Amino acid sequence: MLWQQMGAQTVELGWDFYGPILLFVFLVALAVPVWAAIGAAASLMLVWSGALPLDLVGKKLFSGIDAFALTAVPLFILTGDVLVRTGLSRKFLDVAEALTQFAKGGFGSPTVLVCGMFAAISGSDAAGAAAVGRMTIDRLVESGYPRPYACALVAAGACTGILIPPSIAYIIIGLVLGISVSTLFLAAVIPGLAILISILATNIIMNRLYGWEGGGNIGAGEYFRRLGTSLKSGWYAFIVPGIIFYGIFSGRLTPTEAGATAVVVTIIMGFILGTLKLSDFPAMLVSSAKVNGVILPIIAFSIPLAEALAIIGVPQGFVAVATGVSDEPWVLILMMIAILIASGCVMETTPNIVILAPILKPLADNIGMNEIQFCIMMITALGVGFITPPLGLNLFVVAGLTGESILKIAYRAIPFVLFMLLVTLLIGFVPAISTTFLPEIYK
Question: Which of 136, 284, 311, 314 is most buried (most C-beta within 10 Å)?
Answer without folding.
Answer: 136
